[in-house]
Amino acid sequence: MNCPRCNAKVAFMKNQCDNCGQDLRDYRKIISLSNIYYNKGLEQAKVRDLSGAIRSLRQSLEFNKYNTNARNLLGLIFFEEGEVVSALSEWVISKHFQDQNNDADRYINVVQANPNKLEMYNQTIKKYNAALYAAQHGDEDMAIIQLKKVVNLNPKFVRAHQLLALLYMMSGKRDNRVRAKRLLKSIIKVDVTNTTTIRYLNELSDIHLKGENTAKSTGSEPQKEVRKTLPRVEADAYKTITPYKEEKPSVLPFINVIVGVVIGMALMGFLIMPHINANKSNDANSEFKKYSEQKAASESDLSTLKNENKELQKELEKVKKENDELKGDTSGTGTTMQESYESFIAAIQYYEEKDNANAAKSLLKVNKDSIEDENMLALYKEIKKTAFPEASKEYFERGRNAYNGQGEYAGKKDYDKAIKLLEKSLEFDATNTDAMYFMGRCYQQKSEAEEAKKYYNQILEEYPDSTRVSEAQSRLRELGE
């Protein structure tokens, strides 16, 4: 085991650390208790007492949160019960505590290797949440429709089966109670000691399925529908599950607004405004002639004419300026309004196609200060909030592949290409410590030690809570710091 103070390797039966002198007797008892609860949880999992195994493994982790074997097994149990998000959470935490030689790597890769299956898991979570919301607001029929889809997609999702069975039981109809018992019978095989499942089955003790050893009823009188008292439901038995990857909100309403505004501005700039300018110019000339003919009549009329002519000239200049701006004549921004709107439309299209890299690149060309419409500004912020981090992540993954010689760069490590891609990643998210770390690794591999140190030190100084801190410290030691 490792000493809790200095992390030095110590024989398990030692009472004191040889390196720092720390007393290890109490610590050894804690480690032993954690392992005892882990072994108990393992035995329970083998006989499918999954609920008991979860309790034992959580107790094991309360004694020793670094027990990655217990955490990995807890993740496997969650995955077996259909709780994919909880499983991934446990494996990610396990990976954080033990970066090397950790089975959590394999488990995470198995889940993430098949994008279609991962998307299916996300769909089951979203449909479950929608069904739970419908059930909480009295729309049991919609909840049942959604839950049927969930249990078909994930036949081991225990909570979804229990909620669907409860909704069937609430209807009071015998056919639905039979369906409820079939659902509960199927998931009792997944977790044989689940108290909620067992309690619901007890409430359905009057229902007998085909093949069960029951006495046949006699008589021709039709059976009446029986509704028993519904079982007590724990307050936190059913709660919303956070998806592993959040669904992107629809931007179609915003697109319609943008298209309408662009078309309106185009019509204003190219059809209406020239006509207004021409009319105002003609009116001004007519007024000027009229006042010129009456010039001799009165000096006061002449003064009035001059003042009004000045106002008309100002109005003409203002209209001309607005017309030029609509045509794209801007200054100091580097991007005309027309180019800015074209880039914005392109960003929206890429965003709808889930091409976050191109959406983010297009959004960089948009002049935010020229956006006055609140809906357009809200859409700009929404796309930036989603596309920039996603684009940063995408460029980081490509840069990491170029560094490792994997993916599209399989068999040919290219550190210069990796640096370019990682710079792009940081351009979209300057806080991406993963990209910073691999920038340092690239320069270290290129024997450019000072550049490598700059990125490692940036992680230590600006992001002390990052998961890359320990790795950055290790690399700096390699470089002599």
Brief digest:
The protein has 19 helices and no strands.
Structure description:
The chain has 481 residues and is mainly alpha-helical. 67% of the residues lie in helices and 0% in strands. It is built from 19 helices and no strands. Helix 14 packs across helix 15. The longest helix is centred in the middle third of the chain and has 42 residues. The protein is flat.
> Stretches where pLDDT falls below 50 for ≥5 residues?
215-228, 244-249, 329-333
Strand content: under 5%
- Which percent bin holds the helix content? 55-70%
What is the succession of H and E elements? Answer: HHHHHHHHHHHHHHHHHHH
Compute the gyration radius: what is it? 35 Å
Task: Break the fold down into its secondary structure elements and pairings.
Elements: H1 25-46, H2 50-63, H3 68-80, H4 84-97, H5 103-112, H6 115-136, H7 140-153, H8 158-171, H9 174-187, H10 195-203, H11 252-293, H12 299-326, H13 337-352, H14 356-364, H15 374-404, H16 415-428, H17 433-445, H18 449-462, H19 469-478
Notable traits:
481 residues, mainly alpha, 19 helices, 67% helix, flat
